[in-house]
Design brief:
The structure holds two protein chains of two kinds. Chain A is an alpha/beta fold. Chain A contains 17 helices and 19 strands. In chain A, strand 9, helix 7 (187-198) and strand 10 form a beta-alpha-beta unit. The longest helix of chain A is centred in the first third of the chain and has 17 residues, at 84-100. The relative contact order of chain A is 0.13. Chain B is of the alpha/beta class. Chain B is built from eight helices and seven strands, in the order E-H-H-E-H-E-H-E-H-E-E-E-H-H-H. Chain B has helices at 21-24, 44-47, 85-93, 105-112, 123-135, 164-172, 176-181, 184-197, and strands spanning 7-14, 70-73, 97-100, 117-120, 140-144, 149-151, 158-159. Classes of the chains: A alpha/beta, B alpha/beta. Chains A and B meet through helix 3, helix 4, helix 6, helix 11 and helix 12 of A and helix 4, helix 6, helix 7 and helix 8 of B.
Chain lengths: 472, 203
């Protein structure tokens, strides 16, 4: 191949980057245009305050979709919010959206739910877009072939005022997953296995593109789960090339192109996938068949193993930092080296979050939960990612399966993923959770989190400890 | 934003890797609608005992580190949630400089927007700095952003790399939005083109 021809081959990331470059001058960070700006109540109030103080206006209110999710109660939604500070944050969000003419799905709105669940439901993100949100799990929308990443509150203000962001170009990493997943292994297990393999800083400075036959096989929901956790591997964003599944998913949704524009949009979307021969800065390969259902044992998403494994001993790490991290994690988690994962007893089960709060997640969990009973002493809650997920699940009778098995069926919200709304673990309690982070205190001070897939969570609820669902 | 000036300050040691933003500012403090006052909650769950008293075991509670402006910490500092409350808490507590081998992307960006200089060093250099602090708690380092130099009494000084754009903004204390809005004509021009290329986004 000639050098010129070689240079013309572009990755999907480079195509999106190039088409969104507004200003690129020496001595200043390139300015990238932002198509969609997603918002929730926790990371936006100070940005609106900043706009007010500088007498600036929102440049394009139509680019924004806002929801309330982090602080909202998942039960007794009709009662006033008990926590006065959370109540003020919710009210501030409503005031800010009203004053600036923004589309807000507030707590009582039938479209309400977790921002990264709600946005795809309405077809608000399309392939090729640049999408931001004051939330690290914005990476979720990479499932549609959009460059989607989390930003800080100063940047939220910046995007509102200018519709652009100064950005440094990332390196590109290709993660190839070929082969067939074993029964009950899921997108969540791929995500955890990747984080275990490359570490929580393995993707720092990179945008990851997931490719390979196992990725093509994933549903849109599964792709969202996988891209959602790109941030847990440190990456700026995760991307999956759009294909027929993407187009089928989008077609007919509220904010998807329609009529004369559909074909035009489709032609553009089909031009987005990375060119054959495009060069990535790094490549990682996994075989899907090797991925057992995963369970995290520590306090970082990279501290993870297969359900057929054991809790590692600190001495098993040759790297001094990893050895120390393992020792700290085992002390916090109250675990002893070489304990079989399936011997770890749990007190709490949480199914939900922007990682695993979609209809497919509740279907698979219900399949496992059907006809079982939550083990004595265990509390299990199912928290749909949105009212639409809740409604769909109820139409399919999934809520009944959960409640018959002794689960609580809740209203949508972020809930126990980060425990801001009062749903939390008490000190020493141990959870099987379908969320994305097992950091110390994430689900409540002193709480111990094990990250798993929805099917694994449902099996653990019935047994009272982790179970290798492949053997059920 | 305050312009960043050359200073000599106590360097506090936090010999931990993967310090995440959930630890820097636990979620129970994210409900405020203001930017200020987060310093009192910095590292809350590590810093305080259950009864609210200071946890004497926690490194930043050591008397020798009181008043430190420089934080020397392990690998991958600031990973996890995008919450800007983390750098707000760090700055409000009194730090204006962090030295580590690496940072999570979003956290790193957030630092510079809040007047915090995040310096990257290699592992060997970090180990030297950590050893110097451990041997002499309360030691003061000099940070000179203009000349991209850190000097220490133990002779472990070094020069560091930094993006010229970030450096300029820190030194001048300039507002990013104001800088971007100098290009408002280019943004408008781009939007016109964008409407032609992607009419369905504007329909």
């Amino acid at each position: 191949m000639h050098a010129l021809e070689y240079a013309m081959k572009k990755t999907m990331y480079e195509k999106i980057w190039d088409s969104h470059l507004v200003v690129d001058v020496a001595g200043q960070a390139p300015l990238l245009y932002v198509d969609r700006h997603l918002m929730h109540e926790v990371t936006s109030p100070q940005a609106f305050e900043g706009l007010r103080l500088s007498s600036r206006k929102v440049r394009n209110p139509h680019s924004i979709l806002a929801t309330m999710d982090h602080c909202v109660p998942t039960k007794n939604r009709d009662l006033p919010i008990a926590d006065p500070i959370a109540k003020k944050q919710i009210e501030t969000m409503a005031d800010n959206c009203r004053e600036n003419g923004l589309n807000l799905y507030d707590m009582k709105n039938p479209n309400n739910g977790v921002i990264h669940v709600v946005v795809p439901e309405h077809g608000f993100v399309h392939p090729g877009m640049v999408v931001v949100c004051g939330d690290s799990h914005t990476a979720t929308h990479g499932a549609f072939g959009a460059l989607a990443f989390g930003i800080g509150t100063s940047e939220v203000e910046h995007v509102m005022a200018t519709q652009t962001l100064p950005q440094k170009k990332s390196k590109t990493m290709q993660i190839i997953v070929n082969g067939e997943l074993s029964k009950y292994a899921s997108a969540k297990d791929i995500a955890l296995a990747i984080t275990g393999k490359i570490g929580t800083a393995g993707g720092t400075g990179y945008v990851i593109e997931y490719t390979g036959s196992a990725i093509r096989e994933l549903s849109m929901e599964g792709r969202m789960t996988l891209c959602n956790m790109a941030i847990e591997a440190g990456a700026r964003a995760g991307l999956i090339a759009p294909d027929e599944k993407t187009y089928d998913y989008l077609k007919g949704r509220e904010f998807a192109p329609s009529g004369q524009y559909w074909e035009q949009a489709l032609a553009y979307w089909k031009s987005l996938p990375s060119d054959d021969g495009a060069v990535f800065d790094a490549t990682v390969t996994l075989d899907a068949a090797d991925i057992a259902p995963q369970v995290s044992w520590g306090t970082s998403p990279e501290q993870v193993t297969g359900v057929d494994g054991v809790v590692p001993a600190p001495e098993s790490f040759s790297d001094e930092i990893k050895r120390q991290a393992c020792e700290n994690a085992l002390a916090y988690m109250g675990l002893t080296p070489n304990t079989k994962i399936t011997d770890i007893a749990i007190d709490y089960v949480f199914i939900g979050s922007c990682t695993n709060g979609r209809i497919e997640d509740f279907r698979i969990a219900a399949e496992v939960a059907k006809g079982t009973k939550v083990a004595p002493g265990v509390t299990a809650i199912a928290v749909p990612g949105s009212y639409h997920v809740k409604q769909q699940a109820e139409q399919e009778g999934l809520d009944k399966i959960f409640t018959d098995a002794g689960w609580e069926w809740r209203e949508p919200g972020c809930s126990m993923c980060l425990a801001m709304n009062g749903d939390e673990l008490t000190k020493g309690q141990r959870s099987a959770s379908t969320s994305n982070r097992n950091f110390e205190g994430r689900q409540g001070k002193g709480g111990r989190t094990h990250l798993v897939s929805p099917a694994m969570a449902a099996a653990a609820a019935a047994a009272g400890h982790f179970v290798d669902i492949r053997t059920l | 934003m305050e312009p960043y000036k050359k200073h000599e300050s106590i360097a506090a040691l936090m010999n931990r890797s993967n310090v995440d933003t959930d630890q820097i500012i636990p979620k129970q403090f994210l409900k405020k609608v203001e930017r200020s006052g987060f310093g009192q909650h910095l590292f809350h769950d590590w810093r305080f005992n259950d009864d609210g008293s200071d946890n004497a075991e926690f490194e930043l509670n050591k008397p020798a580190f009181k008043g430190a402006k420089i934080l020397v910490a392990g690998d991958n500092f600031g990973c996890g949630s995008s919450r800007e409350h983390a750098p707000w808490a760090i700055a409000d507590y009194g730090f204006n400089t962090i030295i580590s081998t690496s940072y999570a992307d979003i956290f790193y960006n957030n630092c510079f927007k809040n007047g915090i200089l995040a310096i990257k060093v290699d592992k060997v250099q970090l180990d030297k700095l950590m050893a110097e602090i451990a041997a002499n708690e309360g030691v003061r380092f000099v940070v000179d952003l203009e000349n991209q130099q850190v000097t220490t009494p133990g002779g472990n000084g070094f020069s560091f790399e930094i993006d010229p754009f970030r450096k300029g903004n820190l030194l001048s204390g300039l507002d990013d939005i104001g800088l971007t809005l100098k290009h408002v004509d280019k943004i408008t021009e781009y939007e016109q083109q964008h409407k032609q290329n992607f009419p369905w986004l504007w329909a």
